[in-house]
């Protein structure tokens, strides 16, 4: 609903069209609404109706679309191009001598013919601008794709959308109908802004280097200018240009060069930090993928895993040039600004930190995502802080599928400045939400993680017992599963499905391996003992996990607690599926 711009009171409409709208002698074709609350016009600028109402008609009405934006930009280009050529004059004319002669024979044609000529001119040049850039980024025949300058982009329509949206800055001169400007450079700076926006849009969309985005924009601008020149020459306007001096190819080139040099001058201070990821289990691989896809990295993500082949396999699955497999942990730490660790247990964390301490780590940020005992978290932090590094405890909640989708929940603990450095890699990249423990002791984050993981242990234990009871009592497992889906959708239903489908004994690689689950159970029992209490459900689950370890070895999955409970009830470990 519109509002009064003076007092912000809601109103039904900003103007009313009255019966004399088509009669020029009757004056204005709209009547401004007076606010009942403050007694002033709700929006006095609506009297600039030819501008405001046109935008309202094309763009702001219900169901706006990119097509409408494209139409608006095209029609505005027609106005600008027409005005430029009319005011350009013939070579050698002074400004005071300029007249319609700059349009040649076209000036003798009816105004409608002139309008359709400029509409055709702008349509062809705009299509050429989009077509050449789409060809260069999306065609298998593109020389840039063939030379490996950038990977083939398979959504060319998104390229046009990005160019249209980033060109909307050219609509700003509409404001000059209302506010005059007295700085001639304003028009030039507006042209620069459009070019810079095109470059930035291409860089973000294609995830390419600045020089590649600048090259694409320059080629597009050159093609647009060439097509416009051909059309003008074809109708005999050899001495005119579709662009004024302020909007010429030279200005476009200067704008592109300015964007490049500005980026180079600021690159050291604005470049994204370099990253190293250590540990490529189920969670680590998925989080790496999201950092590569969404992290807007300026340099390849370095990846390290104790077994190198796993790092090589991941690198081959991700886009080329986005990752680099490293063999020396010490050398890798020395190269980067931020180090992520996501490894199996406390001992693995200690080994990684011992290697990292062999490098100069002053000023580097270590982000610890592993599930370890809170005391181990604090001990790790103490070692790193003593050498001048920063540390953030950042364990995450979520199954591997959630990690793959970037839907984890991150728990961040540490000094405010360090957490702020870590935050860009979580919400919106690897996580959907954060639990903020900024300023809290590091161990608080992993205490929450250990206790949180007991929810999963308890859930799996309860589901296993319920399904076995339902089967042995004659009820059957399907009614229990239906109840779980209706009452506890989400993780409960997912684990129930894994049990009943046989996934717990057919999966090649466990989602949550038995040894990792037992490690978390030990940490929970240790926390409870230190606090003078017990976690009896966890104790029961851990006993079943011990039996699972004997039955299936280290490849056993936590969901296979179901098989252990089945055996204790006289059923087969594997269900019939």
From TrEMBL:
<dbReference type="Pfam" id="PF04161">
    <property type="entry name" value="Arv1"/>
</dbReference>
<feature type="transmembrane region" description="Helical">
    <location>
        <begin position="112"/>
        <end position="137"/>
    </location>
</feature>
<dbReference type="InterPro" id="IPR051265">
    <property type="entry name" value="HIBADH-related_NP60_sf"/>
</dbReference>
<keyword id="KW-0812">Transmembrane</keyword>
<dbReference type="InterPro" id="IPR008927">
    <property type="entry name" value="6-PGluconate_DH-like_C_sf"/>
</dbReference>
<dbReference type="GO" id="GO:0032366">
    <property type="term" value="P:intracellular sterol transport"/>
</dbReference>
<comment type="similarity">
    <text>Belongs to the ARV1 family.</text>
</comment>
<dbReference type="InterPro" id="IPR036291">
    <property type="entry name" value="NAD(P)-bd_dom_sf"/>
</dbReference>
<protein>
    <recommendedName>
        <fullName>Protein ARV</fullName>
    </recommendedName>
</protein>
<dbReference type="GO" id="GO:0000139">
    <property type="term" value="C:Golgi membrane"/>
</dbReference>
<keyword id="KW-1133">Transmembrane helix</keyword>
<comment type="function">
    <text>Regulates also the sphingolipid metabolism.</text>
</comment>
<dbReference type="GO" id="GO:0006665">
    <property type="term" value="P:sphingolipid metabolic process"/>
</dbReference>
<comment type="function">
    <text>Mediator of sterol homeostasis involved in sterol uptake, trafficking and distribution into membranes.</text>
</comment>
<comment type="similarity">
    <text>Belongs to the HIBADH-related family. NP60 subfamily.</text>
</comment>
<dbReference type="InterPro" id="IPR006115">
    <property type="entry name" value="6PGDH_NADP-bd"/>
</dbReference>
<keyword id="KW-0813">Transport</keyword>
<dbReference type="GO" id="GO:0016125">
    <property type="term" value="P:sterol metabolic process"/>
</dbReference>
<keyword id="KW-0472">Membrane</keyword>
<dbReference type="Pfam" id="PF03446">
    <property type="entry name" value="NAD_binding_2"/>
</dbReference>
<dbReference type="GO" id="GO:0050661">
    <property type="term" value="F:NADP binding"/>
</dbReference>
<keyword id="KW-0443">Lipid metabolism</keyword>
<dbReference type="InterPro" id="IPR013328">
    <property type="entry name" value="6PGD_dom2"/>
</dbReference>
<dbReference type="GO" id="GO:0097036">
    <property type="term" value="P:regulation of plasma membrane sterol distribution"/>
</dbReference>
<feature type="domain" description="6-phosphogluconate dehydrogenase NADP-binding">
    <location>
        <begin position="277"/>
        <end position="431"/>
    </location>
</feature>
<dbReference type="GO" id="GO:0005789">
    <property type="term" value="C:endoplasmic reticulum membrane"/>
</dbReference>
<dbReference type="InterPro" id="IPR007290">
    <property type="entry name" value="Arv1"/>
</dbReference>
<keyword id="KW-0256">Endoplasmic reticulum</keyword>
<keyword id="KW-0445">Lipid transport</keyword>
<keyword id="KW-0333">Golgi apparatus</keyword>
<keyword id="KW-0746">Sphingolipid metabolism</keyword>
